[in-house]
Write a structure and sequence with these properties.
Largest sheet: 4 strands, antiparallel
Strand content: 15-25%
Shape: globular
Bound molecules: adenosine-3',5'-cyclic-monophosphate
Helix content: 25-40%
Strand order of the largest sheet: 2-3-1-4
Length: 138
């Protein structure tokens, strides 16, 4: 059993896509074991995306991520890191497969509706960034 962090980004929240994203997780036998809505500060967004610090899009990405509320969730299931990434689709919505969240709703490589951890090590860091052990349903 694996866990991963999912974020519905400010564009997903403001466009009324929270239910749509959650529906896709539930329809794919993914369990939500923690969930909350938060508005990140610039510092919190920078800390979360620290791995992208040197990228040209870092400032824009972290500004965007604190521009409105986000929904953060811990997802649980077999092979859920990869499963979530398949459901989300490629980072660039133009390259995302049909039927994926990003292909269906994203408008921009940055405003791509959802974030999902890409590996067990990042999942562990990202889950710990938002949730403590008492907030996870076992
Ligand atoms: P995410 O999966 O949250 O991981 C890093 C984010 O940076 C990514 O989704 C996009 O929102 C953003 N991103 C990645 N590549 C680019 C890019 N080339 N230009 C702008 N934003 C990007």
């Amino acid at each position: 059993m694996e866990r991963t962090l999912s974020i519905i980004k400010p564009d997903g929240v403001s466009r009324g896509l929270i239910g749509e994203v959650i529906k896709r997780f539930e329809q794919n036998q993914i369990r939500i074991v923690a969930m909350k809505m938060v508005q990140l500060t610039k510092k919190q967004a920078e800390g979360f995306y620290a791995v992208h610090k040197a990228r040209p899009f870092f400032q824009s990405l972290t500004d965007f991520m604190c521009s409105g509320p986000v929904v953060v969730m811990v997802l649980e299931g077999e092979n859920v890191i990869q499963k979530n990434r398949t459901i989300m689709g490629a980072t660039n919505y133009k390259e995302a497969a049909e039927g994926t969240i990003r292909r269906d709703f994203a408008t921009d490589i940055e405003k791509n509706i959802v974030h999902g951890s890409d590996a067990p090590e990042t999942a562990s860091f990202e889950i710990g960034y938002f949730f403590n052990a008492f907030e996870l349903i076992s």
